[in-house]
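Task: encode each sequence below as structure tokens.

Item 1
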Amino acid sequence: MARAVRVVVLGSGSWGTTIASLSARNTPTTLWARNDDIAREIDTEHRNRRYLGERPLPQGLRATSDLEEAAREADVLVVGVPSHAVRKTLEQVVDEIRAWVPVVSLVEGLEPGTRLRPTEVIAECLPGHPVGLLAGPNIAGEIADGMAEGLSVGDNTRAMVLSRGLAEMTRLGEAMGADPRTFAGLTGMGDLIATCTSPSSRNRRVDEALARGLSIDEAVEALGQVAEGVKTAPTVMELAREYGVEMPIAAEVAAVVTGKSTPRDAYRGLLQVPPGDEKDIV
């Protein structure tokens, strides 16, 4: 009888733990956590209280804080660490991962500095390994925010930010060679809607805290988790300038998360954008 495929998930945040839990119901799965206490809690108590509260995890899900041990076990490697940590994490286990083991990325955002997509970073770190992407509405959105709720603005403003934010993402993606139709799917519109509307969205929770008057450092500390939009927004603006793409919503978000503007000033700026012809905007 063939040996069961062992899945190893790197990253014990909410998304990584969720994927590991789903996988553990079907095949032996190990979750790597950087934090010893989180790894022990998952392994012995079958909980990840920091990220998933009291939600029970499968009894068969194993966890470890030993990165090299986890990498050696992988028949399929799933990368779920934050975008800024992908390269550093994989560089530690290049020699531990067996040749041709497929790698699946759960990571959103862009790598600061290189501005590479996580799948591109993985391909650089692990040449020769097949690389795939699992993405979609997972309440771990990239750039769009939920600051509107904290400012108590109306549905019309939220709808404007959502629709024009998607248009900005599409313009930048197309300028970089993407098929614009893909932005209407789950990884574009679907993820954007989930990020903007769900109370569970980490980016939304950070942005609501900013709207209540907290500083970016205070908001991130209060969240206690990674919100990819905080680090990704400035990187997106670097790309927008390089490709000559106008992204006023992304620019306002980047200004807020870097402390150059307040949420209220950002919304004042967005409301001054002339309506124009929608076909020109999208």
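Item 2
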Amino acid sequence: MKSNALRIGLILAIAIGLTGIAFTSGIAVGYVAPRLTTASGDAPPIELSIPQIVSRDELPPVVEDDREGLAAPLWEAWEILQDDYVDQPLDSETLMRGAIRGLVDSLEDPHTSYMDADQFLQANLPLNGEYEGIGAWVDSEAEYLTIIATMPGSPAEGAGLEAGDLVIGVNGEEVFGLDPSLVIRQVLGPAGTPVVLTILREGNVDPFDVEIIRAKIDLPSVQSEMLDDNIAYVRLLSFGSDSAQDLNRAVVDLLNDDPVGLILDLRGNGGGFLNAAVEVASEFIPAGVILIERFGDGRETVYEARSGGDATEIDLVVLMNGGSASASEIVAGAIQDHGRGLLVGETSFGKGSVQNWVELADKQGAIRVTIARWYTPDDRLIHGIGLNPDIEVLIPESGLEEGEDPQLDEAIRLLLGEPVPNN
């Protein structure tokens, strides 16, 4: 039987305290944080990133121009708003952040953007594998912050939170009309401190309060198990600092049972560290190019497989969908180009650009700048296109019954060499 834990792991959601992660090795290749998968399929992912921070001193020199003269209309507009806008006084910091956003938005590049100080703090949490909060997977795209599942052993589980619970208040304050991603920030806090959530639960007429003592939460990056018919299954949830090592331990443990094949599930995995992507791909690919990076000035960097992978010969199937992005696409693209395994599922997201994050002065957030694009070993650009699976298995618009997973079923069928079932 396919375990309940595996099924819960297929929910594409964001952990309390996580609004996005990045793809970096001194530079960020970007991360696409998946939204909750609905019965009708994947919602368009939200793209957020964090860096290994780059200081301005490390950037190449720029061509000087008449910056003071060019900025004169900006300051004139600033003064007009400060003097004449009907609702006074204006918040200068809000104006400043709006000006920065307007600057980067003018490039019409969705991956070049500004993140304010609060967003930047949130974005720096996840890839370290831990944060401080309550330990729950949530949907932050609904009207209210919605609990999807609690993490095993977490404060949220201990407090009795359930899937479907709506957070309608935090510490006695209603959050109606407040962006759920902002509610997440209120739920976060130092380990050992309390937070009171007002919960509306289906079947209960009245809301009720739940006090939860926050704790240090270790974020899982790998789920693994042996499925029926002696098939190894590994789901990679992110490409964090420890993900490649966690994956290797899981793979080695599964290989001890001499499985007939292995399924690598990258569905809903929005990316992470570049080094982790190369290391994960190297677990399955013994040698050769993993990806090529090309910069605007014509330079390119070639990343090759690292020797010593433990699963370079076992029959392999990779599951992917529209939430598989960036680092996931690098791994899947390398496996596909090397003929190392079959890709099953849906076309991936198509995130193939490379970003630097540059932290601004006075802790005012950071600017993310697209500096390069990456290509698969066969020199394919997937940015804005995505990877097409070798075998397409779509999730029907009508949704799935409880326990159904036709993509996983197809992967199992392929590894067992079973004939295609009659429809």
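Check on item 2: The radius of gyration is 23 Å. The chain has ten helices and 22 strands.
End of task.
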